[in-house]
Each structure stands twice: as C-alpha cells, then as structure tokens.
Amino acid sequence: MLQNSEVSGLQMLHVSKSAVDGSDLSGSPAYQAAMRLGRGERPAPASPAGAFLAARTRYLAGDRIDMRGLATELGVSRPTLYRWTGPREQLIADVLFALSDRVFERAKHETAHLVGTERLLAVFRRHVEAIADSRALQAFRRQEPQAALRILTARNGLINPRTVRQVADFYREEQAAGQFDPPADVDTLAFAVVCLAEGFIYNDLGAAVEPEVDRAAAVVALLLGA
Hints:
Elements: H1 29-35, H2 48-60, H3 67-74, H4 78-85, H5 88-110, H6 116-133, H7 135-143, H8 145-153, H9 160-176, H10 186-201, H11 213-224
Helix pairs in contact: 1-2, 2-5, 3-4, 5-6, 6-11, 7-8, 9-10, 10-11
C-alpha cells in the first residue's frame, strides 16, 4: 500500500522473513514465488510470480483485478491461474499485504536510530500514514467497498492475522534487544494495535472520511506504555 513509492515497487519487492514463514499465513504459491525473486529479477509472465506481479500492476494502476482478464493477459487457463493464486480474494489480499509489508520494513529501516516506544510509534505512524494515503487502496475501497472491508479487516481473514504477526515479531525484536518492556502479552498487544489502526483507517469504507492518524497514534502510545 504505497503512494509515491508505488511505482518503484513495481521494480523491486522485498518483504520481511515474518511475511513468508509459516504455513497458514504464508500466502498463495504465486505470492511465495514473487517473494523469492531477487532484486530487479523479472519472472516469465506465464508463471506464478508473473501472475502475482501482473495482479499487483493492475492494483497499483487502480484497476480491478479480474481473474478472467488476468488469465488472458498471461496466456494461461483460469484453472491454472487459480492453482497459482488461489481465489480472487486471496490474490488481492496477497497483493495488499506485500505492499503494506514493504512500507513496514522501510519504516523499520528508517527508524533504526530510534529506540523503544519512540521507534515503535514512529514505525506505526509511517506505516499507517502510507496506507491511508495510498491512491490504489482508495480506488479499491471505492470500487469494492464490501470486499475491501472483508479482506482488510476480517479477524480470521487474509490480512489481519498476518499483520498482527508482523507487528508482534517487531515488538519481540525490540524486547529482545532490551529496548521495550511490553505492558502486556506481545501477541495481545499487537492484536490490539492492529485492530485499533484498522478502526481509525477504515472507519467508514463507504464514505470519504479522513483517517484519524493522530488520534490513533495517541491511543497506541497509551497501549505501548509510552
């Protein structure tokens, strides 16, 4: 979920280890193949990674991800495409999470000079602001408000559990470094932070409501014990 960096994201994709480990949260074969690509590497179009990148290109352009059209573009049958990507909502979720994860990792890199809750809050703010500002995400929300709500926020869905795990892993890194003393169980804390962020960002998917990033960050500061 990017804005200015969305275009450059077409040329380079890097995600954290936490985004590809595990079984139930590891994404489709297409997603996993794309995550294994080297920097600047371009796969064959008619391949799992090629399918993922083609879907991402459509999403970033603000276009609807249509499985029939995508299969035609790649020159493969729809059964083959579905075998690579899973159902349409799985593919969309994989694209959304990959872009969100890229922003998250960049935020971690850019705040490496900070420590403790100051760094956690800085990463939260950068991540949430980038998501809220994403033109591609705004287009998706306008085109498919109900699907967007389901994909983005379902507690047992395709994005929320992956994001919770990602945030929990980050908190554990800071805890292991002696920079963060969590006021609650890390997994529970991460779940609360992610769900709170979703509430502020996606407070009304059917209306043009400004995301309340400042208020969200203030509440997260309290949760983190800042």
